[in-house]
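Notebook, student rotation project (T.W.).
Task set for the rotation: take a protein with a known small-molecule partner, predict the structure of the complex, and write up what can be learned from the model alone. Partner molecule chosen: magnesium ion. Sequence and SMILES entered below by T.W., checked by me.
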Amino acid sequence: MHDPIVTFERVTKSYDGRTLVVEALDLTLARGEFLTLLGPSGSGKTTTLMMLAGFEDPTSGTITLDGKRLNHVPAHRRGIGMVFQNYALFPHMTVAENLVFPLEMHGVPKAEIEPKVKRALDMVRLPQLRDRKPGQLSGGQQQRVAVARALVYGPKLVLMDEPLGALDKQLREELQLEIKHLHDELGVTIVYVTHDQSEALTMSDRIAVFHQGRVQQLATPADLYERPANAFVASFIGENNRFDGTLVGRDGANCRVRLPDGSEIAATIEADLAPGAAVAVSIRPERVAVGAQAQRDNRFVGDLREVIYLGDHCKLRLAVAGNESFVVKVAAGDAATTLDRGSALAVAWDAAACRALPPLA
Ligand SMILES: Nc1ncnc2c1ncn2[C@@H]1O[C@H](COP(=O)(O)OP(=O)(O)O)[C@@H](O)[C@H]1O
Ligand SMILES: [Mg+2]
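Predicted structure of the complex:
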C-alpha cells in the first residue's frame, strides 16, 4: 500500500491473560482513508480502537503511526482526535469553550484559536449555538459538537466509536452523510466503529469485518457484498440464504455441494477447499427466480410460508431443501405474491449466483 498511516502487526489483546479478545490482527490503513471496523457486540472493535488511541496496551504485537512504534506512547501524545457514542462534552463549558480546550491542550497559539473555533463550528453548521451549554442542545447537535471538537486542531487521524448509536434513524442517516462529506473535504484519516452494516456500507472506503476478535475480511463495501470470504461475512453483510453442506466435487471454480437431505447445489468456489470439506452455500434473495417457468442451474420446489409486502417489493419466505427460512425478493404484483401460504413454489438460481464458502476465517 502506498503511504500507509497506521499498521497493526500481529496484535493480540487479552484482558484476563487467558481469552484473546483481539487475535493476530494485521491491518494497514492508507492515509486519507475512511476505514470502518464492523462487527457484532463483543467482537473486539472498541478494544482495537482503544489500543490505537493509547488507552489500552496490546498484549503482544506492534502498532505504528506514521512509521513510529506506538507501544507506550501516551494517549495525549499521539495526535489523534476521538468521538464516542455518549458525547463526553464538558457539561460546564459552552460549545465554544469545548472547542477551545483541545486547541489549548495542543499548544495552538492564542491568535489562531478563535479562527479555528469559528471554522470548526461552520463546518458542522452550528455557529449560532456557540454560547450554549451541552445540556441545552439536542442529541444530534451535541454529536456535531463532538465531531467539531475532534477535528478542530487538525489531527491526522480521527477515531469514532459508534458516534451515532444514540440517535434516531433519520438523524443518524443525516449525520452519516455529514461525517462522510467532512472526511472527503478535509482529507483526514478516519477509523470508524459500528455494528450497523448499512452505516458501514454508506460511509466507508474499506470495511474490516470483526467476529470473535478476528478480522474475517477487509475489503471495499462492494467486494464484501459480492465476494464474501466466508459464511459469516455473507450473513452479516446484506441478506443471505445459507445452506450448510459438504463439498462433493470441484472443477476449478465450479463445485457441487451435498446437503443433509441428499439434494445437491451447483455453486462457484474460490476458497482452497477439497472434497469432504464442510461448506456453507450462500445465495442472495434478489438472485433467485420464482415460478414454474424459472429454469436455472439449481431448481427446487419450496413450500411458501409467508408473503411480506414492503411497498416496492415483496419478500417471500419458503422452506427449501431443509432451510426453513429461505427468502426471495420479488416485484410487488408478481404472480407469486398472490399465492397462499402452503402452496408449492419453484425457486431457481444459477451456479454463478451462489458461492460455496468456508464457515469462518
Ligand atoms: N476493560 C475490559 N476488561 C475486561 N474485558 C473487557 C474490557 N473491555 C472489553 N472487554 C471484553 O472484550 C471483548 C471485546 O469487547 P469490545 O472490544 O468492547 O467489543 P465491541 O466493541 O466489538 O463490542 C468482550 O468480550 C468484552 O466483554
Ligand atoms: Mg464497542
